[in-house]
UniProtKB/TrEMBL annotation:
<feature type="transmembrane region" description="Helical">
    <location>
        <begin position="31"/>
        <end position="49"/>
    </location>
</feature>
<feature type="transmembrane region" description="Helical">
    <location>
        <begin position="123"/>
        <end position="141"/>
    </location>
</feature>
<dbReference type="InterPro" id="IPR002293">
    <property type="entry name" value="AA/rel_permease1"/>
</dbReference>
<keyword id="KW-0813">Transport</keyword>
<protein>
    <recommendedName>
        <fullName>Polyamine transporter</fullName>
    </recommendedName>
</protein>
<dbReference type="GO" id="GO:0015203">
    <property type="term" value="F:polyamine transmembrane transporter activity"/>
</dbReference>
<dbReference type="GO" id="GO:0005886">
    <property type="term" value="C:plasma membrane"/>
</dbReference>
<feature type="region of interest" description="Disordered">
    <location>
        <begin position="1"/>
        <end position="22"/>
    </location>
</feature>
<feature type="transmembrane region" description="Helical">
    <location>
        <begin position="61"/>
        <end position="81"/>
    </location>
</feature>
<keyword id="KW-0812">Transmembrane</keyword>
<feature type="transmembrane region" description="Helical">
    <location>
        <begin position="153"/>
        <end position="170"/>
    </location>
</feature>
<keyword id="KW-1133">Transmembrane helix</keyword>
<keyword id="KW-1003">Cell membrane</keyword>
<dbReference type="Pfam" id="PF13520">
    <property type="entry name" value="AA_permease_2"/>
</dbReference>
<dbReference type="InterPro" id="IPR044566">
    <property type="entry name" value="RMV1-like"/>
</dbReference>
<keyword id="KW-0472">Membrane</keyword>
<comment type="similarity">
    <text>Belongs to the amino acid-polyamine-organocation (APC) superfamily. Polyamine:cation symporter (PHS) (TC 2.A.3.12) family.</text>
</comment>
Length: 396
């Protein structure tokens, strides 16, 4: 049996040996007959929400290092980090097309102990990230409904958001995928409109500005901003067993998602820098909404803020899917009890994985938002996939 290497394009013998040595999580025969697989377009948008969710959060790069370095950062950093990580994810996901993704890779490369450790770290990082998104939604809504700023109304709002979004995930990955398409298009549309309206106001000399005199560059903030916004390409690997024709669709989806994501960051950044002249310190998270008001009026600011809520919903759904199918995959390769591989009889979704991820995220969502993000960063171990591919290639 032969397959095409997603990196080199060369045809080589497919590693039947690899997949036979390692249990790969796949649905039962009955489930396959009734379950719809994830197709190319929904997969692209799920990857987009695993990584970015829109240009929200790119603004501190300008504050930290000035306009020129911010533009260069979002132009160059994808080739240093995003493209290599996406290529590794494509190759390993097609070699091991089962749910569990990076956990399967780690077990193959380093053994069961390290597979278990990798799975635990990444799962904790994922569910902590999930906890942040309902909080973000409520943070945006409290600007319209002040009662949500504190107390029991805030707690109830977070609870309702978490449970409703988790139920959507429970109804099926195909539904989540098409919801991601809608959320992505609607949440990006105000940025497209803002960029178009900004064109007559753009002054190109602002793009090459090194920043205001006397403002010290914060390289730590700058690289953290780039890394946070252009990372996590391997998260989608846990869904490989649910993708239609993964050997073809996974590499293509990752290629399109990388181009789409980087373009979604760069175009609004270039447009706003060129059209808006403000103090560098104003470029904090959320400044794009202020820029929208300056460029087009308050109506576009409101639209963009509404888009940020939709983006947070998309991020929640994508990350919950990744975490839930990771639990299922870990159970199927023996790291977790078989109970954790339980699927919904009606929707064929990983019921136990969704419930466990939701409950942990719900408990964490009442923490301080900064603490949530710091905790997620603590558990993230992104260099492991680079080690894994070297070990897998050496073994096979």
């Amino acid at each position: 049996m032969e397959s095409q290497n997603p990196i080199s394009g060369q045809v080589k013998p497919h590693s039947d040996k690899i997949t036979s040595e390692l249990p790969v999580s796949t649905p039962s025969n009955n489930a396959i007959s009734v379950s719809k697989k994830l197709t190319l377009i929904p997969l692209i948008f799920l990857i987009y929400f695993e990584v970015a969710g829109g240009p929200y959060g790119e603004e501190p790069a300008v504050q930290a290092a000035g306009p020129l370095f911010a533009i260069l950062g979002f132009l160059i950093f994808p080739f240093i980090w995003s493209v290599p990580e996406a290529l590794i994810t494509a190759e390993l996901s097609t070699a091991f097309p089962g749910n569990g993704g990076f956990v399967i890779w780690a077990e193959k490369a380093f053994g069961p102990f390290w597979g278990s450790l990798m799975g635990t770290w990444k799962f904790l990082s994922g569910v902590i990230n999930i906890a942040a998104f309902p909080v973000l939604c409520v943070n945006y809504l409290e600007k319209i409904i002040p009662a949500l700023e504190a107390g029991w109304p805030r707690y109830v709002a977070i609870l309702v958001f978490t449970l409703c979004l988790s139920f959507l995930n429970y109804t099926g990955l195909t539904i989540v995928g098409y919801a991601a398409v809608v959320l992505g298009v609607v949440s990006l549309s105000p940025f497209v409109l803002m960029s178009l309206i900004a064109i007559p106001k753009i002054k190109p000399h602002r793009w090459i500005s090194l920043g205001q005199k006397g403002v010290k560059r914060d390289w730590n903030l700058f690289f953290n901003c780039l890394f946070w916004n252009l990372n996590f390409w391997d998260n989608v690997s846990t869904l490989a067993g649910e993708v239609e024709n993964p050997q073809k669709n996974f590499p293509m989806a990752l290629l399109v998602a990388v181009i789409f994501t980087c373009t979604a960051y760069l175009i609004p950044l270039i447009a706003v820098i060129g059209a808006v002249d403000v103090d560098q310190s104003k470029w904090e998270t959320g400044f794009h909404a202020q820029a929208a008001e300056i460029i087009a009026g308050k109506w576009l600011k409101i639209w963009l803020e509404f888009g940020s809520v939709l983006s947070a919903i998309g991020l929640f759904e994508a990350q919950l899917s990744s975490s839930a199918y990771q639990v299922l995959g870990m159970a199927n390769i023996g790291i977790l009890p078989k109970l954790c591989a339980t699927r919904s009889k009606k929707f064929n979704t990983p019921f136990v994985g969704i419930v466990v991820s939701t409950l942990i995220a719900l408990a964490l969502s009442y923490m301080n938002f900064t603490v949530i993000i710091s905790s997620a960063n603590f558990f993230w171990n992104g260099m492991v996939p680079f080690d894994e591919i070297l070990q897998v290639k050496e073994v096979t």
